[in-house]
Amino acid sequence: MHVDVVSIFPEYFAPLDLSLIGRARASGTLRLAVHDLRAWTHDVHRTVDDTPYGGGPGMVMRPEPWGEALDALAPPGGTPPRLLVPTPAGVPFSQALAHELASESHLLFACGRYEGIDQRVLDHAASRMPVTEVSLGDYVLFGGEVAVLVILEAVTRLLPGVLGNVGSLDDESHAHGLLEAPMYTKPAAWRDREVPAVLRSGDHGKIARWRRNEALVRTVARRPDMIAALAPESLDPRDRAV
Ligand code: 6GU
């Protein structure tokens, strides 16, 4: 997968050299390039923002540097990337969207700061590439940079060969519309607290049932919205008893 990121703070992306994302980059699974938006300014002050038309607080990113950046990284006539614009006004990011993005060959992230990017940039881009404005949740960040780190981590771990244990993609939280059951490791007793006996029983049927119950109880308590969204046929009679 090829990923371009445009930001006025390229230093934010230093952590992408670390850990499993760093390894995916080193192996060539992830080809990632971070670009400084100011490379596409032409004035001595390398201006990227201005006051909003219609008034109001804060500043808006001017369209000219963004237009040049998108022309350079998504040349007209070439195979267009999918443009992702992190903004609290976007569609909610989710594991389903992470899977969708993991199947793309080229992603281009445009990180806005201040009150956002002049809307004409996104409208113009949409005439020649798919554009998705995406939000991490109902809170406001200074800019899109941290959101891109989050999205890239969620997407990269879905790329073939990035996770050592592919099975861990299967029963993790959000894989089946439920939160994951609690997990335990050695020692069996720690500070007077014991690992639930069923997990040490060796009875795989009982363990699977216990985990399913714990997942249901947790999801009811923490994410009633996820329970409401479950397909009724995904619950069996033993689930209903929980
Ligand atoms: Cl994606 N960007 C910004 N700036 N703020 C956010 C967000 C994104 N998601 C939630 N808040």
TrEMBL record:
S-adenosyl-L-methionine binds at residues 112, 136-141. Residues 1-227 form the tRNA methyltransferase TRMD/TRM10-type domain. GO terms for molecular function: tRNA (guanine(37)-N1)-methyltransferase activity. It is found in: Cytoplasm. It catalyses: guanosine(37) in tRNA + S-adenosyl-L-methionine = N(1)-methylguanosine(37) in tRNA + S-adenosyl-L-homocysteine + H(+). NCBIfam families: PRK00026.1, trmD. HAMAP family: TrmD (MF_00605). Pfam families: tRNA_m1G_MT. PANTHER family: TRNA (GUANINE-N(1)-)-METHYLTRANSFERASE. GO terms for biological process: tRNA N1-guanine methylation. Its main location: cytoplasm. Belongs to the RNA methyltransferase TrmD family. The keyword Cytoplasm applies. This is tRNA (guanine-N(1)-)-methyltransferase. Its EC number is 2.1.1.228. InterPro entries: Alpha/beta_knot_MTases, tRNA_m1G_MeTrfase_C_sf, tRNA_m1G_MeTrfase_TrmD, tRNA_m1G_MTases_N, tRNA_MeTrfase_TRMD/TRM10. Keywords: Cytoplasm, Methyltransferase, S-adenosyl-L-methionine, Transferase, tRNA processing. It comes from the Bacteria. GO terms for cellular component: cytosol.
